[in-house]
Amino acid sequence: MTAAAGSPGAPQELDLDEQIAAYQREFPEVDPQVEKVVTALGRLNRRMNVAYGRQLVDLGISNSEWEVLKALVVVGRPYRLGPGDLAKRLGLTPAAMTHRIDRMVAEGLVTRDRDEANRVRVIVELTDEGREKWLQTMRLAAAFEDELLQDLTPVERAALGEILTRLLRRVESSQPDAGGRLEDLD
Amino acid sequence: MTAAAGSPGAPQELDLDEQIAAYQREFPEVDPQVEKVVTALGRLNRRMNVAYGRQLVDLGISNSEWEVLKALVVVGRPYRLGPGDLAKRLGLTPAAMTHRIDRMVAEGLVTRDRDEANRVRVIVELTDEGREKWLQTMRLAAAFEDELLQDLTPVERAALGEILTRLLRRVESSQPDAGGRLEDLD
DNA sequence: ACAAGAAACTTTATCTCTGAAGTCTTCAGG
DNA sequence: CCTGAAGACTTCAGAGATAAAGTTTCTTGT
């Protein structure tokens, strides 16, 4: 196993500090402190989604379906929203919502009915089974999150929450949802 | 425009605190402080990706392509990596990398050649044009990031960086890349 | 009333990613 | 030297997303 030219043995993923160092080397104007925060945020998020994804597999639903469940639960009883509204909240096109709902109806997580008061509209409603699934995901997610933050002191947690909230307010105000959908990931 | 049954006028997206309140209502066991941190993290990330995405459109490349450029630049000169290695770093299947590289070669951002020392391997190398693109994206990204963090005092920035790093270390150690690819988004 | 116009979903075509199968190269024995 | 096994990439079929066009159902001006 000589590994002649290409790359040696274990190139996997760079350590955070190494990556910051690389950025400084390739783009000296960068502020390392800023870059560190931003990079850590991105990586953290990715890892968290991996963790959620694994738990969801165990429960037999996909990340996409989880998003829909969350949106419906958050609006509260009677857990109803239209496809267009859901699409907007999840940052998808209405077309994608149509298909997602198709699948979720087939699995019994939600129902889809025409709104008889205004037949242009459609109402997607969480079923008891869907709500139960959400509760299960919530229990797992909360356990993971508690573990993730266990190293932080209460003071640190509060500070972190406050700072993140402030950052969020800044982006949300400079990006007033204007365009409509929130593109990209989640 | 009376809006009879369904939903009133502007359901768009819930405010952060409202969403936390909704979680507490629907799942009382949840720790609001934890949930606030986690939710803010997720939203922040989404917004940042939206912002990056817009800048990338202006520069005429996609988010996917940007990821590849970043990976190549981070390894340093001569900016070379194999498709499999790239796939691992970006959390994609090798198949997806093949297609991505196809596109990027066609656009002149990278080259793809067989490694003559070990003809099983393929070498993807950044072109000057690709490097230039990366520099442009970096300038825009850095400007956005500086603006995002402008409200924070130097002390806060340092604290934020330190805390996030700590969290990241925790997840990365409990998720040792083991399975191989890092599923999901980015 | 009636026709033009707007709204809210759905359908269709195309693109990108995943998972599995396939191809080509290198290495280790016999 | 030849054969089997392993490794690295590519190809192929299927799932899910986007964009644009299409349907159906209100709404509004005359």
Automatic annotation (TrEMBL), chains A, B:
Asked whether the keyword Metal-binding is assigned, the reply is no
Is Secreted one of the keywords? no
Which residue numbers delimit the HTH marR-type domain?
Answer: 34-169
Biological process annotations from GO: response to stress
Give an example GO molecular function. Answer: DNA binding
The organism named in the record is Actinacidiphila guanduensis
Name of the featured protein: DNA-binding transcriptional regulator, MarR family
Signal sequence span per UniProt? none
Q: Which domain of life is it from?
A: Bacteria
InterPro entries linked = ArsR-like_HTH (IPR011991), HTH_MarR-typ (IPR000835), MarR/SlyA-like (IPR039422), Tscrpt_reg_HTH_AsnC-type_CS (IPR019885), WH-like_DNA-bd_sf (IPR036388), WH_DNA-bd_sf (IPR036390)
Check the record and name the Pfam families matching this protein: MarR_2
**PROSITE patterns the record matches:** HTH_ASNC_1 (PS00519), HTH_MARR_2 (PS50995)
Q: Which keywords label this protein?
A: DNA-binding
Cited SUPFAM superfamilies: Winged helix' DNA-binding domain
